[in-house]
Amino acid sequence: MSITILGIESSCDDTSAAVIRDGVMLSNVIASQAVHEAFGGVVPELASRAHQQNIIPVVSEAIRRASIDKRELDALAFTRGPGLMGSLLVGTSFAKGFATALDIPLIDVNHLQAHVMAHFIKVDADDNNQPAFPFICLLVSGGNSQIIRVDSYKDMTVIGQTIDDAAGEAFDKCAKVMDLGYPGGPVVDRLAKEGDARAFTFSKPHIPGYDYSFSGLKTSFLYLLRDELKKNPDFVEQRKCDLCASLQSTIVDILMDKLRRAVKDTGINRVAVAGGVSANSAVRAAFEDHAARYGWQIFLPRFSFTTDNAAMVAITGYYKYIDKDFCSLDLPPFARVEL
Ligand code: KG4
Predict the structure, then answer these.
(1) Which ligand 1 atom is the nearest neighbour of the CA of 307?
(2) Domain annotation for the chain: domains and CATH numbers
(3) pLDDT one-digit tens code per residue, 269-309
(4) Are 139 and 145 in contact (CB under 8 A)?
């Protein structure tokens, strides 16, 4: 008998719903919120209002595109956290109401676990490129930079994480001081293609273990701009491609240094990357390079599964459903929650 799961994601500024049947994605609808662009970052109150407006049309569209009837759903999986409380409340409340109306079980999903689980979404029945356990996953997004040892879908151990900013934050904050818009990561990626990665040198952190730090890089970037702008007010405009290329290559070096160490020490050479920053072309190139140089078996997610999406929530829900790992209706969302 087949298992059909509806996933709902509303942790930050993307309202998304997806249907997965037996591990195969039938639909994945994402409504992004352009309203934040004018503010240079996500405004929590505006995010929750936009979720409120989007959630019903997005869920209806996901069910329509999956060509199923809502009564065919076996369970409903939703992101419980971490994320913005107001945003999470919209998805959580909707999920509870809809599951109650359909009289189906409810499954709470950890957003970070879901990013890792994106690697298990099959886009068709013949899609067999899922990592075997154990593997190492670099999770890099706007809010997280973690190295995770994955022993099973429910047994994940964070072995390294950022002690301050996340890698995506470093991209976004440096892009902001160059006035490149929000989110800055994709713009930096695009401009870096035209620039020289060795044009500028920024500080790299010296911290023990597998932990990351990006705040020093951000400060070093800011100081360079401040000093150069005093000499030449057009500095950023004239050198933005070189600035982006140098910034991006420093971020990628920092990420790969610790990841290489973790892979070497654990002896696990199956290595995946997940989260918004995994869309970055230099991150992907570095993974390809490490595969060739060190024999890593690498897993790069499809672009549509790098940023927040409900297919990753639905696939996590699918595996939890198999284990009958359901939650109760009185479960509150969590703004901060560990993996
Ligand atoms: O996973 P995600 O959608 O949201 C969080 O859960 O944080 O990640 C968003 C982050 C943003 O910081 C964005 O700038 C970054 O991912 N990002 C990129 C690229 N695409 C998205 N960073 C660098 N290069 C990209 N191509």
Answers:
(1) 3
(2) 4-123+305-322 (3.30.420.40), 135-301 (3.30.420.40)
(3) 999 999 999 999 999 999 999 999 999 999 999 999 999 99
(4) yes
- From 277, 302, 309, give the residue whose CB has the most ligand 1 atoms within 8 Å, as the site to mutate: 277
DSSP characters over 17-82: EEEEETTEEEEEEEEE-GGGGGGTS--HHHHHHHHHHHHHHHHHHHHHHTT--GGG--EEEEEEES
pLDDT tens, 176-203? Answer: 999 999 889 999 999 999 999 999 999 8
Backbone angles phi, psi at 245, to 5 degrees: -65, -40
Predicted pLDDT at 187:
98
Ligand 1 atom 20: residue of nearest CA: 186
Residues 6+ apart with CB under 8 A from 128: 122
Q: What pLDDT is stored for residue 182 in this prediction? A: 85
Does 183 sit in the ligand 1 pocket, CB within 6 Å? Answer: yes
**Helices and strands, counts by H and E, the chain:** 9, 10
pLDDT tens, residue by residue, 11-30: 998 999 999 999 999 999 99
